[in-house]
Amino acid sequence: MMGSLKTEPALDRPDLLAAPVEAALRDWPGRSGTVVAAIDAGLADTAAFCAEYGVRLDESANCVIVAGKRDGVTRYAACLLLATTRADVNGVVRKHLNVRKLSFAPMDEAVALTGMEYGGITPIGLPPEWPVLVDPRVCEAASVVIGSGVRHSKLQLPGALAAELPRAEVVAGLAR
């Protein structure tokens, strides 16, 4: 248990998971190390969540969706980084995706493409063509809290499992 979160095995509580997250967890070997906790949906944003539930910012990882174009094709990726850091979107991420210009995906677009709620988007259950770029500091954390695809819960997993997510690529310099 982290902070005051009351956790249970994630797949025991499908009501606390977005449908694509539940489906992906069923197929992921790391599911046994992943637990879920119900939270107040009004406190899903990182700072409010951490303050209310006693989770440190360096134990919370954010998943941000970025989009860039190359040859008229939009390329998406998820970046997983600790809440104490920011993604190097215009440097490392842009070069990694081989696009000229990269930005955060618009909220309505990210929600529609992921099937998840804004403020709950997680790297588990994303579209299969999207890479999941992981900052090494996430993997070094003993445990991290991430979204569950919905605003009324959070997932917790050992940081090392982040490197084992489907399509995960640990990228040095991803976050500053």
TrEMBL record:
GO-annotated molecular function: aminoacyl-tRNA deacylase activity
Domain of life: Bacteria
Domain YbaK/aminoacyl-tRNA synthetase-associated: 43-160
CDD domains: PA2301 (cd04939)
Record-linked Pfam families: tRNA_edit
Coiled-coil spans in chain: none
Protein name: Prolyl-tRNA editing enzyme YbaK/EbsC (Cys-tRNA(Pro) deacylase)
Native source species: Catenuloplanes niger
Lineage: Bacteria, Bacillati, Actinomycetota, Actinomycetes, Micromonosporales
